[in-house]
């Protein structure tokens, strides 16, 4: 049973990864074109809009998908009730966006926001009308249809957004692109799954009992992750907000494209074994061991190469983003810990502690940004540096939660977190030494630095895994993964030859 679940989770992760890579490849190409057609100020308006819309959606989100996935039996009554409750809440959400569009625009001193928010009020409704039957694919860990849908929609929206940018040359191209994306996702959801939802209120009470704390956790978690951009929208010009948001997006690419795709399959898998404490701990630790083997070198590498990445990837008009990109990459260090804890606690219906952690972090961000905002000469880099400094507090709170809420060994969690830093620091020194002694064009320097970083990190990391495999069950798991990967590559090479 455990082996079968591992296989299904792995397949689910791979399909999620394929979807993410395909969508991100299209998204990166789109973004690389758009950053040369539009200004940082345009991206600032679009970012503030998407964050405000997402905040309203989050406030009205009660976790219908997770409620259906967690249920022992997936009946039509369950699906219809979940879909109907979500639709009712999203209707109120759209009305709130219309009502608060002018006050929000005035509060942020961004009058351009009001008409944008009025158009985007349809986004919550489009999302709520989506076919609830898609959740059945997630219950079955069958992500291929979802991958196909996401990629198809991206391929349709990509040329539309680019054509709009060439025509309009302002933020409206980005906004209309978002609405078009939601529209085609809605239409496609009814093509790929035969289920047809109907209005029902039969299980609203049961879902509310499941969701009331998760709703609060979702709201506080979203505010924690986005409050910095909202505050910057009030404290700084929209150009700085755009610089911060684009830097944030590219700084977090390794996590969002390599690690985050596992989240859906991780939740579906953990919900099936949450009753077994030891197995749950094993699954979480194994996830963290793989995640940090990828996240730590990525964060350190982006920090070391921030100037080269911005100049080569984004272009000259984004040069001020380089130090912001570098410092924000360090926020990735808390993400695997946070996402694994959230997944576990949601599956165990224990989310009150997550709410407390999020409230503490939001308070620290608001107090710190407000203090910095009172100083007239505070720069965007100073705001970003303060935001990243709080990651130490956040990680400490997460460690406490792993120990006292999940009952996991603190030594076990610390080991999978800390050990990748040793080869990553060696990699950083190698990249720094290389950049000090080569004088090619920046694209060549970037390629060489990435190659040297990989050549240094990989064998040192393998050595660390091999050295501690007998002392750590999680690194023994990593060692077995590496052996299977080596065997698979050998077979492929032999077949090719």
Automatic annotation (TrEMBL):
Q: Which InterPro entries does the UniProt record give?
A: Poly_Biosynth_Transport (IPR050833)
Q: Which UniProt keywords apply?
A: Cell membrane, Membrane, Transmembrane, Transmembrane helix
Q: Which regions span the lipid bilayer?
A: 21-38, 44-62, 83-101, 113-134, 146-167, 173-192, 284-305, 320-341, 353-372, 384-406, 413-431, 443-468
Chief localization class?
A: membrane
* Signal peptide per UniProt: none
Q: How does it sit in the membrane?
A: Multi-pass membrane protein
An example GO CC term for this entry is: plasma membrane
Its annotated compartments are:
Cell membrane
- On the tree of life, the source organism's domain of life is Bacteria
Which family does this protein fall into? Belongs to the polysaccharide synthase family.
Q: Which PANTHER family match?
A: LIPOPOLYSACCHARIDE BIOSYNTHESIS PROTEIN WZXC, PST FAMILY PREDICTED COLANIC ACID TRANSPORTER
**Would you tell me the protein name for this molecule?**
Oligosaccharide flippase family protein
